[in-house]
Structure formats: structure tokens, C-alpha cells
Specification:
25% helix; 3 strands
Length: 69
């Protein structure tokens, strides 16, 4: 398959999630096309993943700092 057909559509972008273990939970660092778009925290990996899903699903509901508006 040619490389051009494997690329993500440019308007959709590509999210990457980097889970970072903390003393009291997991911080998920989220990027879109290499740019930081969110930091989401949860008590465990599942809770952090839920926070990421909510952020990606409704990005306008959060301020630039990640706090709910």
C-alpha cells in the first residue's frame, strides 16, 4: 500500500496518549499531531483513559488549562 494512502486525513489529525504514573494516580499527556492538547488525570489507567475520552469527545467543554468551563 502506498504511503500516501496510509496517512491520516489531515483535517482529522492523529492523537497520541502518553500515560505517566504518579504517586496518587496516572497522568495522561495527550497530543494532536505532535502538539499538546490535554493533560488528564485519573486514580488509575482506566480513570485517566475515561478523562482522555471525555476531553477528546468534548474539547470545547474545557479551558486551555484543562479545567471545565
Amino acid at each position: 500500500m502506498p504511503a500516501s494512502t496510509r496517512r491520516a486525513h489531515p483535517s482529522r489529525g492523529s492523537y497520541s496518549v502518553y500515560p505517566l504514573e504518579a504517586l496518587d494516580g496516572v497522568l495522561a499527556y495527550v497530543t494532536l499531531n505532535g502538539e499538546t492538547v490535554a493533560f488528564c488525570f485519573g486514580a488509575d489507567e482506566e480513570a485517566a483513559a475515561q478523562a482522555v475520552a471525555e476531553q477528546v469527545r468534548h474539547p470545547a467543554a474545557f479551558s486551555h488549562s484543562g479545567a471545565r468551563r
